Amino acid sequence: MPDQDDTITMGVVWEAGASEAPRGRELVHVPRPAPAADRLRAAAATWNTYAALAWSRRWQTAEAYVQDPDLYRETVDAAREEIRRERAQVAKKLDKARMRKDEAQVRLLSEQLQDLERRAPSALKMDALTLKARSGRLARQAAVPAAITLGPVAALALAGMWWPLLAWPAAWVWLAVQGHGIAVAEGAVSAAEAPAAVEPAAAPPPGAPRGASSDSVGASEQETAILGHLADWDRRSAGRGLDGVTPAPPSLDSLGIRVVLATSGRMTPEKLGKRLPEVRAALALPRGVRADLSPGDVGDQAVLRIRTRTPERDMTWRPGRAGIGVDSDTGRPVVLPKGRMLIAGTSGAGKSVLLRVVMAEALCAAEPTAVVYIDPKGEESGLWRGKLRCANTVDEILAVLAELDAESDERSAIMQQRRVSSWAPTEERPRIVVVVDEGAEIVSMDAPQDDVDLIRRLQPLATMGRSRGIDLVWATQKPLLGSGIPSQLNGVMQDKVVLKTAGRNENNQVLGADWSSHELELGGSALANTGGRGPDQAPIQVWDLSDDAAVLALPDAQPWAHRPAGKQPAEPEGIPPVLAAALALSEGARGVTGPEIADGCGLDLVDVQEALRAVGVLGDRFTRDGVQVRGYRRDALEEASRRYAQ
Ligand SMILES: Nc1ncnc2c1ncn2[C@@H]1O[C@H](COP(=O)(O)OP(=O)(O)OP(=O)(O)O)[C@@H](O)[C@H]1O
Do residues 387 and 363 lie in contact, with contact meaning Cβ atoms separated by under 8 Å? Predict the structure, then answer.
């Protein structure tokens, strides 16, 4: 890079030409003030430096854009979104077909929906699409420079036109002006200054962030580095599409670093939300450090959370705990939808503890719920006797499966008679959670030739149990098709909670290539593909119910057993409690709202809506005290209750 001293050497001229030098006399040179031509040459060198700076920044940005590590994730997200969209369309059609009672369409669409639920983006296809996207980006980035460089040569050679060659100096001037702008914007040079300062400004020392608050005292080494990058925000964010973002002084709390980002100009918090990868790159956040952006207190602010710390939490399970655990980032309970579920995890991953949580939650549920525990190893069952129906030996397992089969058939017959499409649990016929521990054991015990047809008996529970209020939970150490989960069940066990798996192979088989369950910690860290959770979210920390005494302290309950239809208590006791409560609450009125029923029954609003939908009552509008409200009309509730009396 030229500097001011160069003008001295550039000003050197020969006093006499070499040819004229007298023999034996050394050539001498005398410095004199630089002529205009030399000053012009120096200025050209300066602006050339600016042009080089702009070109190098442009190149870096293009390179980062083409090699963007998040491109793969974006491709997978787009593929998933497409599947989700298709699924929503088919589900909508299915609902309509159900309302029309078009059985053929319902069957066809149900199969289509199951196919779609099973479908996941294939890793190979995602690789190919990512490569295609990178090639496209590269072609777009290279198009303009290639056209400017080669176009004039081609024009000259093919058409003899010289004037397209002017594109070269024009491009040079354009780059030089941009480079100057960059240098000025970075504060490395004033508009009038020489280019010496195009050198990047030195970063402030780590740990001395811009306006660092006293909260930053006690930062770890990693946090100190990130705080240093935050302090150097202007330089590190340049050229990343983050113009108009200004960080306020950061602070440290139990979750890590928190910093408010003010936005201005064309940047808004919403746009910034889509630029998290660029923010991560600007701050050089390590891969394992999670970060998220959320709206700030003021309209033009966003809050960046860099989760470098895990807060201490009391993770002991006790009655009243919601869901299976908490999101390890946000600390919010993770409540998964009811239904069949696959639980997988290698030895020591925390399957037994998770199953305990699932069974304890079912035992304590507000909705009438029973648990059937199929435990071929038998060790765990001792803790649950008197609370659940346990089956350990082949005979016990066959017996309980036969009872479940009969129960399922009876429920189906009752549902057809009542003209409802899903089961509303009652005290007499509760929701039944069938938990199969050590699925691989069941697979190895299965011997249809000797009438030990366990898988054949479990299959209808997996496929048809859901609408009949019977949910199968299949737990296995080896989530491999065949040995750990029978192919007959695999297709329908779409909701998965996966603890640490033995390796990538197991992870790919059970969840797919865009998940990383094999990188989880042992002892209660899990991922789930249901309940709105995805591979980008932090792991779930499962509630800790490893204490045997806590299991023994759970309330005793009458273990479930099938009572043949004739032995069921007579109607109207069979009227589902939610319907009965809705009838009582709407007495003398035109209807009752969902929240009022939820309050009256001590249930969630969603459970109330599900229960009423199951008995064929849908939400509607009615007027109350001259005001239109949304809820459940009295006449619809009465109509549903009459179906039970038939
Ligand atoms: N949610 C949890 N919270 C805290 N600790 C846990 C949790 N889950 C598991 N652990 C710890 O990990 C140990 C192993 O858990 P667990 O017995 O559930 O593993 P597993 O997957 O069933 O293994 P195996 O299949 O070999 O029996 C437990 O004894 C407990 O110390």
Answer: yes
Element housing 373 (H / E)? strand 369-374
ipTM: 0.97
Ramachandran angles phi, psi of 461, nearest 5°? -65, -40
Supply the pLDDT for residue 359.
96
DSSP at 567: G
Number of H helices, E strands in the chain: 22, 20
Amino acid symbol at 465: G
d(C-alpha 265, C-alpha 397), whole Å: 68
Report the separation in Å between the CA atom of 326 and the middle of ligand 1, taken as the mean of its atom positions. 16
Answer for the pair 258, 291: CB distance below 8 angstroms, yes or no. no
Is the pLDDT at 211 greater than 70? The verdict is: no
Closest residue CA from atom 7 of ligand 1: 524
Better pLDDT: 211 or 334? 334
In the sheet that 627-633 helps form, which strands lie side by side, from edge to edge? 591-592, 627-633, 620-624
pTM (two decimals): 0.54
Distance CA 137, CA 132 (A): 9
| C-alpha closest to that of 529 among 84, 94, 112, 115 | 84
The DSSP line for 330-370 is T--EE-PPSS-EEEE--TTSSHHHHHHHHHHHHHT-SS-EE
- Pair of tokens at residue 489: 């069940």
3-state secondary structure (DSSP) of residue 188: coil
Map residue 252 onto helix, strand or coil. Answer: strand
Q: Which two tokens stand for residue 510?
A: 């059970």
Q: Is the dihedral of CA 172, 174, 177, 178 positive or negative?
A: negative
Burial per residue of 342-354, b for 16 or more beta-carbon CB atoms within 10 angstroms, e otherwise: bbbbbeebbbbbb
3-class SS at 530?
Answer: coil
Domains and CATH numbers, the chain: 214-307 (3.30.70), 339-552 (3.40.50.300), 567-645 (1.10.10)
Answer for the pair 599, 593: CB distance below 8 angstroms, yes or no. no
Quick: pLDDT tens for 142-180: 898 899 999 999 999 998 888 999 999 999 999 988 888
Burial of 215 (C-beta count, 10 Å sphere; 0-12/13-18/19+): middle
Q: Is the dihedral of CA 176, 181, 187, 192 positive or negative?
A: positive
> Which residues does a 6 A CB cutoff place in the pocket of ligand 1?
315, 345, 347-353, 477, 523-524, 542, 544, 546
Q: Are 501 and 346 in contact (CB under 8 A)?
A: yes
Q: Atom 24 of ligand 1 has which residue's CA nearest to it?
A: 347
Question: What's the gap between Cα 282 and its chain centre?
Answer: 22
**Torsion sign (Cα): 383, 384, 385, 387:** positive
- What is the CA angle 597-591-417, rounded to 5? 80
User: Average pLDDT in the 273-282 region?
Assistant: 92
Full DSSP string of 89-112: HHHHHHHHHHHHT-HHHHHHHHHH
**What percent of the chain has a predicted confidence (pLDDT) above 70?**
87
Protein residue closest via CA to atom 6 of ligand 1: 523
Count of residues making up the chain: 646
Residue whose CB lies within 8 A of the most ligand 1 atoms, among 312, 318, 546, for a mutation test:
546
